[in-house]
Structures are given as C-alpha cells and as structure tokens.
Write a sequence for this structure.
C-alpha cells in the first residue's frame, strides 16, 4: 500500500487536469506522537521525491495523497500511475546514460593517448603499474584480488583495500572488463583499468553511485589464483 501511495502521488502531477491550490499550512508545533509520525512521514516522502524526481508540484502530490486515502475517485488509476512513473524513470535513465556516454568517450580517447596505456580489441584500456611474475588465470579460475574502484570524477564507489580484506571470485562471475583484464595479468601484477560502460554495467548502472552508461576506473592487484 505504501508503494502504491507513493506511486499515485508522484504520478498524479503528470496529468493535465486542473486542480485547486491547497491553502498554505505551516506547523509551529507537534503536540502528539501522531503529529510527529505524520510530519516525519511527509519529510521522508519529500526527501525521496526530491532526490529521485527533482522539483515537482507538491500541491498535486498532496491532492494525490488525499484522494488515495479517501478511497474516492482519482484523476488517474494506480496502473496508469505506475506506467507513467516507469516511463519517466526510463527517460531519465536514458538521458543520464547519454550524458555519461559522452563523458566516457572523451575520457577514453584522452586516456588511450597516454604513454603506457594499452587498448584491447574490445575497448578495454589498461596500464601496468607493477609487473608480477606469477601465472596468469584462465576463464575457469577463481582469483583473489585487491582493488579500488572510482568514477571519472574521482569518487570512490568500492574498495577491498578500504575493507581490509581481498575479494575472491570466479572470472566467469564478474563484469566483462574484469574477466578480460585479469586474464592478461600475472599473479603479483597491479594494473590500472579503464573500463567502458559496455564492458561494465552498461545502461542499467549499479547501486547508487554507478549510473547508467558509466565508464569505470579500477586499480587491481592480482594476489592469487585460488586452488
């Protein structure tokens, strides 16, 4: 019910219907626990809406909440609300992916021109920071690595180094850029990887920091081929 409530209130502002403006209201005091819960819920809804949808018409949002709560007629159905919301999210994701794609292409072009950077046939870029002399893993192997992952703007989104514990995984179980890159490394090597979006998380992104179409940078040290 809470998900439906949020969906219908957010999507109601997509309709072209004309609605009366709500009277201004400013709470000066929260007298009861119910007051605090109601006000706090409003804050959380507002925070979520702002962080995901930017500025919207809050009068319409409140009208949507009231209509849904009363059980009376609404300007659009819950199914229509969910459809419009999904379409809006898809448009925003596509716009973010296009923007990230342009930034990634520019970065990859500049990085490829740097001395010491190798570009593979797939578009993966790597630079050897430390050359090890151990064996190279195969596609069937499980490896242990230390790594730090950053975005193009330098923000760190993941780090086994920060956690103080190496990561272990089968080469078949990671993003394509890692699967390819690790097979080029000897145990004991450390490489700086620049991975295009299509070899990383593509148009879907991953988590809160890795957006759609993001090019990723990893510093990876191959510690061990697990037996």
């Amino acid at each position: 019910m809470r998900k439906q409530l949020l969906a219908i209130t957010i999507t109601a502002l997509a309709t072209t219907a004309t609605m009366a403006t709500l009277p201004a209201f400013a709470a000066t005091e929260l007298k009861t626990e119910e007051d605090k819960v109601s006000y706090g819920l409003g804050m959380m809804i507002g925070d979520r809406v702002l962080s995901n949808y930017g500025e919207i018409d809050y009068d319409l949002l409140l009208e949507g909440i009231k209509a849904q709560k009363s059980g009376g007629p609404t300007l659009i159905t819950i199914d229509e609300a969910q459809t419009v919301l999904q379409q809006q999210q898809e448009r925003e994701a596509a716009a973010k992916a296009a923007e990230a794609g342009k930034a990634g292409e520019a970065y990859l072009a500049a990085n490829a021109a740097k001395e010491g950077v190798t570009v593979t046939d797939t578009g993966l870029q790597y630079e050897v920071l430390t050359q090890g002399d151990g064996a190279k893993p195969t596609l069937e192997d499980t490896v242990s690595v230390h790594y730090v992952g950053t975005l193009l703007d330098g923000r760190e989104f993941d780090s086994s180094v920060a956690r103080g514990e190496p990561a272990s995984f089968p080469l078949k179980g990671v993003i394509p850029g890692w699967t390819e890159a690790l097979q080029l490394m000897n145990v004991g090597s450390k490489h700086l990887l620049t991975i295009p979006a299509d070899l990383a998380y593509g148009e879907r992104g991953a988590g809160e920091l890795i957006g759609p179409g993001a090019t990723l940078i990893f510093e990876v040290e191959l510690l061990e081929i697990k037996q």
Observations:
- Residues 78-112 form the longest helix (35 residues).
- Residues 1-24 have pLDDT under 50 and may be disordered.
